[in-house]
Amino acid sequence: MYISVFVTLVVWSSLSHLWLSASAELEKVSLRGYDPGKCNKTNHGKLIMVKDRSNPTGEYFNPAYDCSDALNKISGAKDGFYWIKLSGNIPKKAYCDMSTDGGAWALIGRKTDAVTWTVPSNNKTVEPFGKPHWSSSLGDAPIVDFRVQVATKEDFSATRAHWSFRLKNKRPLKNLLMLNEGGCGRLWPGIGDISYVKDLQTEEIVTTKFRCSQFSSHHSKSDGYGWDMLNSCLNHPCSPGFAFHKKYPVQMDFSATGASGNTSGIIHDSTSFVGCENHKCCGCFGPVGGKKNYCGTECRAKNGGTIVKNLYTWFWVRSSLPKRVWNKCMEYKVTVAQGKVVWYKLYHGNTVPVMGRCIQNDALLNDGIVVVPDSAAAQKVPPVPGLLEYREDTKRLYVRSNGTWNVIGEQKKVLGKAVEQIKPRFEQLEKKVTNEHKTDFEQLKKSLAELKSQLGSVNKSLNVMKPKVLGESCATLYKSGKRYDGVYTVNYPHDLGSFQVRCDMQTDGGGWTVFQRRQDASVNFYRGWQDYKSGFGDLNGNFWLGLDEIHRLTKSGQNVLRVDLMDWTNETAYAKYGSFSVASESNGYRLDLGSFSETTDGSNPTGEYFNPAYDCSDALNKISGAMAGFYWIKLSGNVPKKAYCDMSTDGGGWVLIGRKTNAVTWTVPSNNKTVEPFGKPHWSSSLGDAPIVDFRVQMATQEDFSATKAHWSFRLKNKRALKNLLMLNKGGCGRLWPGIGDISYVKDLQTEEIVTTKFRCSQFSSYHSKSDGYGWDMLNNCLNSPCSPGFAFHTKYPVQMDFSGAFSYSASGNITSGITHESTSFVGCENHKCCGCFGPVGGKKNYCGTDCSVKNGGTFVKNVYTWFWVRSSLPKRVWNKCMEYKVTVSQGKVVWYKLYNGNSIPVMGRCDRNEILLDDGIVVVPDRATAQKVPPVPGLLEYRKDTQKLYVRSNQTWNVIGQENKLNIEFAKLEKNLAELKTQLGRVNKTVNADHIKDKVQPTSGKPISTTATPATICSSLYKSGRRRDGVYTINPDGLGSFQVRCDMQTDGGGWT
Q1: What pairing do the DSSP bridges indicate for beta strands 341-347 and 329-335?
Q2: pLDDT tier at 351 (50, 70, 90 boundaries)?
Q3: Which of 205, 408, 708, 787 maximizes the CB count within 10 A of its CB?
Q4: Which chain positions lie within coiled-coil regions (predicted)?
Q5: Sequence spans of domains, the chain
């Protein structure tokens, strides 16, 4: 048996607001293409076609190759979204500009200010007025044209600079920027290999000499950012943008183009510019048609140029030329020095211009119109619908429509004559119908209404006579052959009577009993006990089946539960559970839910309650892109525990075990609740048996991680249980001063530097024996069992300790810190004085004296917030086959240590030459053979010394970072005339048909029209018999009784059930 819940989340209160927002957006921007416009008094009640899908090219199941392919195959294609398979076999949704410069441009990027480098890239579709980002899913797409469009408003009509580069040779988008090739120098990468630049505001080719649109200064591919990072981000997602190094917030530059020289941008003047140079970001442009350089370096204007800070930019590419810009021979002229005119031609589709003019008998392409000398030359023009052709012999302009060439002016005259001829006949028929047949129409209308009522009674009787379908559940009905979703009658157990349920026979194998469906607000679900006991709603709409029925169906326990959700954007998700049952009313309808088995993507997510991770490191290893947050772990036992995990600091994998909001340590309670980073202060008592390898203290002056002033961790020499954190008379801690001992090294997490390997004990307090019932051993005990008043109080007597208890370290070479010793950082109490103390970032002196005193320029604070973290295992992302580090000792001498084969105890010396190193988060290997030993950890960085390249692990492969990396008005008038003619013809046909009905159908003198006929077997047979209207029909396909269906008699030839 299967049980399912279908829930659709709809925020009805915000629906009107959403529509109003959409209307405001239409006023804000100039949309083109498949935009139906706003509703108004003129079009009120009318049906407007938004997009004709009769030609499925460009749809998901029949994608076009690219925007050019869609433009070629779809007659009258407009700007809008299309599915294309460019750059692979998987369909991708793209926004295509079908009008600019011949059309077929794919939108690959958009930004809403001058800064380019912080714009992310991802595999989502770039929308013309959506969120700013680059596309990362078209990296392998070959491009022949690259286009930049700059506007001062989020509106195409506000465009101020608009140009395109025609490339000499096609190249993948991921190789857009070049260095030391294609006219770009070895120090200044940019867009090179350019054949010519076209100003799309004037539609004029402004230069054929331009060589490189410089993008930025040089950075090598191994740097991990810069120009090559943009290439990479055009092929792979880059969530923070490509401005930032993994460590340093480096911001780079972007440039545009010039028309007066052969190079533009960054260190050169430009005709138009958008981006940043030397941290100054802007847009710059000149007057329309201007060919001077209006943009100087560092966002300075010249020659009357305009500088703007607030601007919007769109980036487009074209991978092939559409047929509507077919160029059998295209010629253009360029004015060079001293006003001399030089002609160039593009011949046989070649993208490289050749000096000269087209031959006299060649078909020309001039400003979007094919120019031919005579009829013979016209035969060579391809039959592209919508193509314009001018015949020099007849002096007429033709448009291609279906299989013929039509004279535009003549067609308009024909339409005008047709309208004038039809209009008198139309008026005559309209008058005749109105005056002579009004009574007949009223009588016919009344008869049809009576017939409809009679048919309704018959159908109601037939429904009552339908045999009941009985089964134990939807699952048994499915097994018996039922395959249609709907309402069925079930009887389980058999002795309690039958009832109706809704069965889903399609989802996930079918056979699901739906006990709740909530799709909109038509049914109130805020009800009392009795309604939920007996059920409410409509099984064909929104409903709750009822707890009594759910109990009857599920009490065996052998059921699977599936929960389906849909949000207001139609995004869906589901979850499945291995078993499910609801107890009887006497047991409070108790819910018994089995193990979580599957989610939307078919996975069983690590770190959830029903599939807990071992610890935070295990969750980090198994979850791609794991971030800080709450996870379920089974560390220290088999019962899942909810813990807050830090997945980023020092490699991640940290569990938060304690938090306090002042310097006092001893009065903080412990309990088995989850420690939240900004929740109530307490210690965790549920992880006492957890083995720990690292202990970490984080101290801040505000309740904010960004206000951290001291941050350090202790790497322990040997794993030990958390309940044994503090030691006495061992591990470097003396017999009178217990503390955290057995320390391998101390790491300053603000500088990520190991500051000492000599440190032995972080003294916590003065000595008290275990039998005292309070003190240091009481803290160990409270980390394993709840201590409601904290560990300052005796278990029998109201004795409060002396506010001792501190956490500290020393980087100055001292082997001990805290309480009776000086410290580099300190938080806690000593001799009734409580404080936090720290030095400058990276400082290695002792800044904290005894009794909360300061020295060496240290800082003393009373209001302090502290978080305590532990790590039980090292995540794979800090895997260390051999990790080496250096320590500066006395007189500036440098001593090297290494951590080898995962051992947490450092050994003096350096890693062998052939060993795999871990250097600052990057695995360093000498050659390919050694690289094979590196574990396949997604996101791990690997530097190969032999190739001098940086690789990143992605799925099953290592990828080199960086390498992957004005006739429109006439047409509008013509279309309007055609639409008006079509409307008038429709009205004439309607009137003629009505006249025909009057002649053929005699009134029934008020009696109902009754007919007897044998039901058809299927909608297709009805269509063959002459039925042509969509509607509800009665059929009997198998002779087992008739029933009603809806027939579609219009789509794709008609006859569809």
Answers
A1: antiparallel
A2: very low
A3: 787
A4: none
A5: 100-318, 329-409, 474-596, 657-871, 922-962, 1015-1056
